[in-house]
Write a structure and sequence with these properties.
Layout: H1 2-29, E1 37-47, E2 50-59, E3 64-77, E4 81-84, E5 94-98, E6 102-110, E7 116-127, E8 130-141
Antiparallel strand pairs: 1-2, 2-6, 3-4, 3-5, 3-7, 7-8
Length: 142
C-alpha cells in the first residue's frame, strides 16, 4: 500500500514539474505580437448590488477597420457551474460594433442575488491583415 502511494505521489510530482517547465518555456518566448491592438482591458466592480463593466481597447497597428465585442455576465452555481445572467439582450450578450481606434464602453447590471459573477468580453478586431480575437475575463463576488 505504501509502495503504491509513493508511486502515485511520484507520478503526480513529475506531472507537476513537467507542466511547470512547459509553462516556463511558453512564457520565455513571450506573447505573440498583435496585428492591431496595444491595450485591451475589461474591468468589473460591484457597488450596492449593481455590477459595473468597462471594456476598453486602443488600436496602434496599421490596417484596422473595425472591432466587435461580445460581453456577457455569468453567475457561479454550486461552486463549479457558470450560467448566464439575464441582461435583457438577445442571448444575454451585449454586442458592440465600432470602427474607433480608441474605444471605451460601459454597462451596468443590477445583480439578482449575492454570489460570484464572471464578466467575459470577447474582442474581435478586423482589418487588412485579417482578423484577430482575444477574450478577457474578470470575476467579482457580491
Amino acid at each position: 500500500m505504501k509502495k503504491q502511494m509513493k508511486k502515485i505521489v511520484a507520478v503526480l510530482l513529475m506531472l507537476t514539474l513537467s507542466f511547470s517547465l512547459f509553462t516556463v518555456l511558453v512564457h520565455a518566448e513571450g506573447p505573440a505580437k498583435s496585428k492591431y491592438y496595444a491595450n485591451v482591458q475589461t474591468t468589473a466592480a460591484v457597488y450596492s448590488g449593481v455590477l459595473g463593466i468597462s471594456n476598453h481597447y486602443m488600436v496602434t497597428g496599421e490596417g484596422f477597420t473595425s472591432a466587435e465585442i461580445h460581453t456577457y455576465v455569468e453567475r457561479r452555481v454550486l461552486g463549479i457551474f457558470w450560467f448566464k445572467v439575464d441582461n435583457g439582450q438577445s442571448d444575454n450578450t451585449w454586442i458592440a460594433l465600432t470602427n474607433l481606434k480608441n474605444y471605451t464602453k460601459t454597462y451596468s447590471l443590477t445583480l439578482p442575488q449575492t454570489g460570484t459573477y464572471r464578466v467575459t468580453a470577447e474582442y474581435t478586431f478586423y482589418g487588412s491583415n485579417g482578423s484577430e480575437s482575444l477574450t478577457r475575463q474578470h470575476t467579482v463576488t457580491y
